[in-house]
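Write out the 3D structure for:
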Amino acid sequence: MGSLANILKGMRLWRWLPGIGIALLLTAAAALQFGHGAEALVARAGLSLVPQRPPNPDVVVVAMDVTALQTHGPRPWRRDLFAQLTAQLSADRARVIAYLPEFSAPQNAEALQYLHDLASLEVFKRDRKAAHKIAEARAALSTDQAFADSIANAGNVILAAYGVVGPVSAAAPVPTWLNRKMQVPQPQPSMTTGWLFRPESASLDPPLETFGQAASGIGWLSDSPPADLYNLMVNVHGQLFPGFALLVAARDLGLGNDDIVAHAGGGISLGDEYLFTDAQLRAQLRRYARGAGRSAIPVYGFDAVLNGQVPAENLAGKTVIVGPSGGDAQTLAAATAVSRILNNDLVAAPWWAWALRALMTLLVGVYLTVMVSRMRRWPVLVASVLFLIVLVNAEFIPLLARGVWLPLILPILFLVVGYALVATLQWLHEWHGVPNAEFSETNRELALACQALGRYHDALTYFGKCLPSAALHENLLHLGHEHERHRRYPEAIEVYSDMERRMPEFGSVAERLRKLQALDRQATLTPVRTGGPILLTDDGLQKPVLGRYQLLRELGRGAMSVVYLGSDQKINRTVAIKTLNFASEFSGGMQQEVTRRFFREAETAGQLNHANIVTIYDVGEDQGLAYIAMDYVAGIPLQDYAVPGSLLPIEEVLAIVIKIAEALDYAHARGVVHRDIKPANILYERDTGRLKITDFGVAGVLNASKTRTGTILGSPSYMSPEQVGGGKVDGRSDLYSLGVTLYQLLRGELPFEASTLTGLMFKVANSAPPDVSFLRPDISPVLKALVDRALQKKPDARFQTGAELANAVRQCRGRARRAG
């Protein structure tokens, strides 16, 4: 024992203990699938670098959309509608008809029972006419039977049986008829992989038996919103049942339940095709990229198909997924899964992938602990690079070639970070004997040069190699101030912390550091979605700057922007600075496109020169934050005068509208449309009568981008019907918005209000506004007629130009004066 201890002591194994401990800890984390979400993100990023296959052309969606909701009312709908749709799709020769709506409860059961009881009464048996009417009512209310008959006649209908993944009570076994309808061949786990085969347990809420017996098949579907992992099969009370998407794909291929075979350890045979899955029979749900705001999979409206407005050739031979639109996107998720299965481009980690991940992590740990410390610098660098290339290729080549996901990011990061740490420690050990004084001044000059070039991190690194001195203290103080001005608070804190630790004798910055740390915590806790607010303080810290403008205080904020009072440091001019953080609302290429459009629109708006339009001086971008520098107006928004109790006299309101109409006429004549005219965007100084319209060049960008993002940006209450409908807008849309503003200034309320955005948009597009003169006897019939014309639904029926509206308001005001 003594000799063994001496041998181990001679090998200095104690030096390896920290590395071995870290390696074992990370190996255990790898085996337990720690960091699964991060690994999945990297896999999706890798897949996004190569062109993906287009959706399978045999898959289409029939959406229960807003148009159908307006026609048929809220769900659940009458099932004879689905019967009619099934008949129409059968007539169009659809290959498979798959329904996502839940059909687990009978419809009109109580009413039918009541009619049955009435029919059994003697008084109705003797009255043939009454008996006939009762029979007609029973037939009209028998929507379940109509739907069941249509399912049976079609012969190709798949229904969804909803459930929840998780432990299932044994108190509710699967009915015999459902077991026969859903069951597939049960696999026999082998000795080597049986312990890995664990399909997720799930509950099951089947459709009505009358529907299920008539259907071609029933597939399990999760009650929860679609997740990244999609269940292709589930375990219900010990029986393996196919998921909805898998069953639909099987019917598309002309396969029955017996042709769906799950394999122990993961993987599913679908006829002659083999689908990669994980051990739980799941696969990654990769959604298709949307093009120009539209789904990559064809989507047709429910009513359009029901009424035969979709050409039959668009549906013939197709697998049709019928379900709700919007919400949690369950319908598109199911269609995407069916398409992926038919194309066999699923992505999944096989049962052995996580074991491989743990093995590679352990191998990297042994390499870093034993080999790196014993090899020379250049050979170990070459070996580490080759090892890294092998791991990266093992991660991405199977993924891109076959959809086999080997999650190796943890060992890759372990290798990179571990090698960098070991190499750094070795270099510090070698460099430790060199005196700092020898390089101090050289490093300080290098730091100043890096700071001048904007390489602040390198500057701080070189400053850190310098001996403490008054000159170094001054240099670091200037570097910290520069970070403060440009809102790089963590970097400024790092600089001041270094100063306080290394050279407090040259002047303490502890108080400044404390204030900055508090400001940084506040910045971390402050939400940034509303235009990226910049925190301003009056406690001696540097005022932040945007471009050449110093920000003095916040003036206000809107849905996507913040406005500050600023100072142009070059010409000492007071300006208003509006900031817009597009990164919080858009991402990737959309963000770049919106930013480019923003600069183009702002440049056009900057050419406007009118007494009632805010002048734009400059536009720019600073650290991803776009901004506009404009004329500072001391007025208050008109919205303060658009509430009961604060309304302006009618004479003053009309004078305001004339100025706004003339300003819009000026802008429209130069091809500039505002797109967001409302009281909040109009500043008014009542004492002087000065009025300015703001946000030219901003609303155009945001509203033009909504069609690409699927989001309503702006103020729907003030939008014209064509703007709400996503149609092309011109100057007449601004005049409609001005009409809404006039209505609100007269009554203190909006013409259209609703509890939901959908309801509001519907009213704007279809409903007439309430009478503006109701309870306002001082509003003349001429003024009422003017407001009614300004709020016409059709653009051709409104005022065609701002000048026409201004003249009409003048005439109305003149009549009022003569009448008074």
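The radius of gyration is 35 Å.
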